Amino acid sequence: MQTKKTVIIIDDDIKPSGEIKLFLEAKGFIVSNINDGSIALQIIKGVNPDIILLDIIMPKIDGFTLAKQIRYEENLKDIPIIIFSAQGEMKELFAMEGINDYIIKPVNNQQLLELINKRIG
């Protein structure tokens, strides 16, 4: 029996992240939404997800800083991170910081699913 893969979505914009959550749950994933980047690292440590979907522009702590924090944690550093943001021109910068993939908002759910499957099968 195959276990369900766990996805954490970190985005302060509740409506689009909620739509992504519903889409991924319908595809068989276990999905958690976090809308506050300042508490996300502690939640990620507790859940140890298979993949993280991360917005860049957030209050308190931005996604770029959070991604760097995740990469510094020994138990979390290998979890794939997919950035989703309206900031398309920053794609090369994220690649240098160990971000696995990048998708531009508004997110195409099918394209996102393909990126997730590429990373975690």
List keywords for this structure.
121 residues; alpha/beta; 5 helices
Quick overview:
This protein is 43% helix and 20% strand. By secondary structure, the protein is an alpha/beta fold.
Strand order of the largest sheet: 2-1-3-4-5
From the spread of the alpha carbons, the general shape counts as globular
Let me know the CATH homologous superfamily: Response regulator
Judging by the overall fold, what is the CATH architecture?
Answer: 3-Layer(aba) Sandwich
Count of distinct strands: 5
Count of individual helical segments: 5
Order of helices and strands: EHEHEHEHEH
Commentary on this structure:
The protein has about 120 residues and is α/β, with parallel strands linked by helices. It has one domain: 3-Layer(aba) Sandwich (Rossmann fold), CATH 3.40.50. The protein contains 5 helices and 5 strands. A 5-stranded parallel beta sheet has the order 2-1-3-4-5, with helices on both faces. Helix 3 links the parallel strand 3 (about 50-55) and strand 4 (about 80-85). The longest helix has 13 residues, at about 15-25.
